[in-house]
Amino acid sequence: MSFATATENQLGEGTSKLRANCSGIVALSARLESWMTEALSNTPTEIVQSIEQFGSPLNVIATAPLVRNLRQLESVAAERDLPFKVFFARKSNKCLAFVDAAHQAGGGVDVASEQECRQALDRGVPGPDIICTAAIKTKALVELCVANQVTIAIDNRDELQRVREIAAASKATAEIAIRISGFVHDGEKLHSRFGFDVDEVQDLASSTLRSIDRKEVRVIGLHFHLDGYCSKQRVSAIRQCLPLVDHFRSVGLDVRFVDIGGGLPMSYLESEQQWNRFWREHRDALQSKRTELTYRNHGLGFLPVDGEVHGKRNTYPYWQNPVRAQWLQHVLDDSACAEQKADLEPNVPTIADALRDRSLQLRCEPGRSLLDGCGMTLARVEFVKQHHSGDHFVGVAMNRTQCRTGSDDYLVDPVVIRGQENDDQTQIEGYLVGAYCTESELISLRKLRFPNGIAAGDVIAIPNTAGYFMHFLESRSHQFPLAKNVLAENNSPLTWRLDEIDSEHAEK
């Protein structure tokens, strides 16, 4: 990726100008990568022409931040002399450029379907550099993995039996990792529907796994994935995996790695103060102490009852600290002994020490945090109208599945690029609405302020959507085409080309 460079001052000025056209009623200012600022600071005509060429919405991606993020994680492990490998969670974004970038940077790929696996293999990723963590593993997927030495994370006994049968029939050796769940943290069992319960794994190793034919199936790792982003929970899980590793090895199973899955945190916003203020003001709105911040006072997980607010936030924590590399540092530098504290007894081994002393490789499978800074979604404004409530509806050519995951909203301020000269610069407030024919079809539930007005032909840019927001829920309802995906190769002039996922040969 070869971008025209700009000074920090120029980028800062550009960022301020970009943010001037739109913010939430309570602002949540996005962290903008330099490539985003440069691209969006081009003449509006170029951006509008790109939308006309590729369609609205348009996903714009860049791979350089992925490599930077991967290197940050690797440096943490290298400083502790710990064998380590990052596997890009492909389910977080379907673009093939990210598979190429991860592979070329020395990373692996985590796949969740037969097609994801086949595409990674077709891009030249070696089978041993792929792990399959699919929730449902069909016969065809398992056959593909076994034939190509792709490691399979085993969730249950039926999967294990299927792998054994396919390996025996193909006279190949399947390499597997046992997925574990049900770890205890702070006296409570962590819930998950995936994996073998930690209390059952030792018996599994001593009986079923010990008796399997090593020419058919080799157990080479332990795997887990926890919901949320708590580093202390990861420490608890690793602590409980270490004696299991010792037991597996004692019964002749060659465990080489522990894989902690994904859930490495990232932060979308510039300001913790903005984040905290938004939730204070939102709570006030739910209690009728101020005007609403969301469409029809949507609670975003909270519910007002008799003057009190109940429930919990149903959105990603868009501001977090620590993130990525610092978070991993906290995990690796924690004590490996639950009963002792490293700060009180310096000789107590850390998690990194315990893994290294066992000659174990640490693996992780980040998606969202690896794609931090890697993409943005652009959409054309088609109309602006005023509702009888006084608010305005800004209709954009996209639907909410094209920037949404399972949570209630994307709590990051968009950027508005004026696509034409507009004599009316009147400030308005209102909501971004999308193309599905339902009352709930909002691109963002937050009320937005447009200080310089907004008009048909303008472009809405939603920053930092590469991780999950572009593709995880995208739908072709109403027979709308899926958004095209372009790789930003130059920003001045704009040089964007289709990612190969959109080529006619991508689906095989």
CATH C-level label of the largest domain: Alpha Beta
Classified in CATH, the superfamily of the largest domain is Alanine racemase
What gap, in angstroms, lies between the N and C termini? 28 Å
**Regions with pLDDT < 50 over 5+ consecutive residues?**
1-6
Average pLDDT over all residues? 93
Helical content class: 25-40%
Number of helical regions: 13
Biggest sheet descriptor: 10 strands, mixed
By secondary-structure content and strand pairing, the structural class works out as alpha/beta
Radius of gyration: 24 Å
When the domains are counted, the total is 3
Strand tally is 23
Reported CATH architecture of the largest domain? Alpha-Beta Barrel
CATH fold call of the largest domain: TIM Barrel
Shape: globular
Strand content: 15-25%
Protein name: Diaminopimelate decarboxylase
Enzyme class: lyase
GO molecular function, one term: diaminopimelate decarboxylase activity
Keywords: Lyase, Pyridoxal phosphate
Structure in a nutshell:
By secondary structure, the chain is of the alpha/beta class. It has helices spanning 8-19, 34-40, 44-54, 64-79, 96-104, 114-122, 139-147, 157-170, 198-211, 231-250, 272-286, 324-332, 351-357; strands at 23-24, 58-61, 84-89, 108-111, 130-132, 151-154, 174-181, 184-185, 188-189, 196-197, 217-223, 257-259, 302-305, 308-311, 361-364, 375-386, 392-396, 415-417, 428-433, 448-450, 459-463, 484-491, 494-498. The longest helix has 20 residues, at 231-250.
